[in-house]
């Protein structure tokens, strides 16, 4: 919002939510119309000036959050979702909460690393506008494969993030996986690629989902032609449970000896762990093995997930 409108929205929100004035009374105080006050209050909610929380004694979310926070040392947001909703509807609810959570964390001069995938695509559609200065959105991993360059798919996600935060967008126009590790080594010595790698090394925020081999709703990397049959066999032999930005790991969080990672264009897990804020968004209890592996590996500082996944994650911890 422009500066004056931002101030008006803040003032209207303070009068409505903190002083319990009616919209008619606020309209008189601000010398405007009731409909304008209604729009200001809506804008205050949409831009994060106002965040509404409902605490019900029947709500299991806070207890699930407490248990997950204690076990995995992450800030966690459990999204209440009815069990009757399908995978797509659940993802949309989680994506909406993720977008609201991410907004206040993005500041000027930030370097925001964003992975591509079904989850981040959904999140990008719910982002609300927040003006920042000298911020950059950088793509975390390449998106090309034998069937497509992946540029359109990944760039749509990056563009939405850039537009939401007024940030410069830096794409990573390389394959998701090179055919040979030696090719990756050679490309990583190119100055044009090193410029992107340098941005990634200075990220203040990384935002990603978790790809899972076992998910009912297949992750894009497993369903989009990025892996052939030999690759999938190799992953199975290595006991891989999931990936973050096309870098794979096992259920115990380890990634040593997984040969496909030598050809992946995503940041190493060690590099990712160096990022100050690492926001993981997960929807769907069938991704739970991949999520648990990512948490054990210490890849996330913040976790946003649906209630069914949270219950499953706590059950896994208790051995049920």
UniProtKB/TrEMBL annotation:
Membrane-crossing residue ranges in chain numbering: none
List residues of the Sugar-binding domain.
63-314
* GO MF terms held by the record: carbohydrate binding; DNA binding
InterPro entries assigned to the protein according to its UniProt record, in alphabetical order: Homeodomain-like_sf, NagB/RpiA_transferase-like, SorC_transcr_regulators, Sugar-bd_dom_put, WH-like_DNA-bd_sf
Q: Give the similarity note.
A: Belongs to the SorC transcriptional regulatory family.
Which PANTHER family does the entry mention?
A: TRANSCRIPTIONAL REGULATOR LSRR (PTHR34294:SF1), TRANSCRIPTIONAL REGULATOR-RELATED (PTHR34294)
- Protein name as catalogued: Sugar-binding transcriptional regulator
| Organism whose genome encodes this protein | Arthrobacter globiformis
